[in-house]
Amino acid sequence: MSDLNGRPVLVTGASGGIGAATVRRLVAAGADVVAAGRSVEALEALGAETGSRSLPFDLESEDSVRAALEGLDVYGVVNCGGFGGEIATPMDTDIDVFDKVISVNARGALLVIKYTSRTMVAAGRGGAVVNVSSQASLVALSGHISYGSSKAALDNITRVSALELGRYGIRVNSVNPTVVMTPMSAWYWGREDVEKPFLDAMPLGRWATEDEIAAPIVFLLSDDASMITGVSLPVDGGYSSR
Is 169 helix (H, G, I), strand (E, B) or coil? Predict the structure, then answer.
């Protein structure tokens, strides 16, 4: 991915597993990475490891996003910041939790696109945006009324942004991963009554690794994907193809 050499790329949610893996791959590809998130300590540790620049801000605050991103020189954007919310049915969902999930996962990504795309358009050199969505936007998953809805909204933000920004040479795509088994996700997906039937239904039959999500993100940012835009790419072991 030598075409990323020296290009500035913003990664939100950089303190998380997929976000940090994406930062590492982008740095290895020569990109000038701006790592964003809310944890200053985590961002500074990542910067010390990789050489990425830190830019803490709050995805739920338009003022915070505007202050951080207005005029920031970027060629690429990875919207990886997210909030899992709850496992609940439509009958027992907590609407306050639903509102927060939508606020972070959909509204937050839109705010990032709003302020970065203005600068990208003004720069006149094109660019690429990758939104980290989920298989939960492509198929119905039990308990995922909030999360799945937020990621379905994000996929639509991807398509409409691709339509609007294509004339400026800016491509916008999503990746839609399956579960990456981390301590944070294990409390639900690691349960025997959840894990076995889910993996039995997946053609590849295993969870994804963080690098297996980061790799297609970096590909979609690169010139190798120069004719790909408006796509929601499942990275889910074939689960959504059933």
Answer: coil
75, 115, 147, 239: the active-site residue: 147
Task: Work out the number of other CB atoms within 10 angstroms of the CB of residue 55.
Answer: 17
In the chain, the largest separation of any two C-alpha atoms, in whole Å, equals 52
For the question of whether the overall pTM of this predicted structure is more than 0.85, the answer is yes
Q: What would the two tokens of residue 122 be?
A: 């003004």
In 40-136, beta strands by DSSP E: 53-56, 76-79, 127-132
Q: Is 75 a catalytic residue?
A: no
Q: Which of 115, 151, 188, 196 is the catalytic position?
A: 151
Asked whether 238 and 204 are in contact (CB, 8 A), the reply is yes
Q: For the chain, list the domains and their CATH numbers.
A: 2-229 (3.40.50.720)
Residue with tokens 């609007």: 164
Give, for 152, the enclosing helix (H) or strand (E). helix 145-165
Question: Catalytic: 115?
Answer: no
Q: Residues near 242 by Cβ (< 8 Å), separated by ≥ 6?
A: 139, 201, 203
pLDDT tens digits along 192-240: 999 999 999 999 999 999 999 999 999 999 999 999 999 999 999 999 9
DSSP, res 241: G
Average pLDDT, the chain: 96
CA–CA separation, 55 vs 50, rounded Å?
A: 14
Give Cβ neighbours of residue 193 (< 8 Å, ≥ 6 apart): none
Give the separation between CA 109 and CA 107, rounded to whole angstroms. Answer: 6
